[in-house]
Amino acid sequence: MGRIYNFSAGPSMLPLEVLEKAAAEMTDYNGSGMSVMEMSHRSSFYEAIIQEAEADLRKLMNIPENYKVLFLQGGASTQFSAVPLNLMNGSGKADYIVSGMFSKKAYAEAQKFGDVKLVASSADKNFSYIPEITPDMIREDADYVHVCYNNTIYGTKYPEVPNVGDKVLVADMSSCILSEPVDVTKFGVIYAGAQKNMGPAGLTVVIVREDLLGNARKDIPVMLDYAIQAENGSMYNTPPCYSIYISGLVYKWILNLGGLSEMKKINERKAAALYDYIDSSELYKAPAEKKYRSMMNVTFVTGNEELDKKFCKEAAANGFQNIKGHRSVGGMRASIYNAMPEEGVMKLIEFMKKFEAENK
Ligand SMILES: *Cc1c(COP(=O)(O)O)cnc(C)c1O
Q1: Which residue of 173, 238, 250, 321 has the fewest CB atoms within a 10 Å radius of its CB?
Q2: Separation of 31 CA from ligand 1 center, angstroms?
């Protein structure tokens, strides 16, 4: 069997070139006589891998010198606790915007650690939009403001960086990191699980401004302490070695394409083709409000559950897999992350047209 078009929301597709390179290096990495999975994380081979991965990520995202890059474990969900434990250290207050299931979880978790305010939510319309905020909605003494930048389940995304005035902005970018350039200087912390748009599960990248370090709660578990992780170059313990290696190959793949501005152009073409077709069709509808549509997760429905089921079944049989929507939205979701080739999106559109013609 050849490779399928995998529209999974995560873990998701990786670039074929990356997989082939990893396969070629599987049993003997760079003359070391062993695979990356087998080598000490303290070896000179591995040191070069992690240092290059960090340097390439810094180059790609244009991360300033006064930010630390941490390669951690525990998934984005661990950051739901790590963020308050590290940052809720002034007034003990934090403000959250809830735009989907993951930000709702982050908001719930933070409540264990301090005084958490719900600033705005789009729950009233099943998270089909991003609630707009203005700086006056944020508490004057809030230690930080938390947002989820791309809502994987609902297919929405912040069209621009929300204005939180001079407050520290924390963003969960798990499902949109590296999809387009972002101005890192507008954020205090950016975090992302790797398994959507970066690499295999097991790695979580945290990008944190240096002045926010060293002020964590005294009872913070050591593994969650950004300052300790930064001091130890993400090697307080064994890091997720292989996931970092693969993510490093993905960084090089994007750099070779021309970096994030080129990546964005490709992603815009893919998303526009799919949304344009959905908008022109009589069968499919996109539940997300136009202004807030995600470039990575395209949700659509027929309005008929049976027909949605039939669509997913026939799509899978035709090589378009994992296209079933999350149960909280229903219908379909095509996750078209960086590694989904343009051809995969074009072929999906062809299939959708055929399905529409057959099911009028
Ligand atoms: C997938 C996802 C998460 C959860 O990530 P884990 O690494 O599984 O903990 C959190 N936030 C967003 C936006 C996601 O897409």
Answers
A1: 238
A2: 36
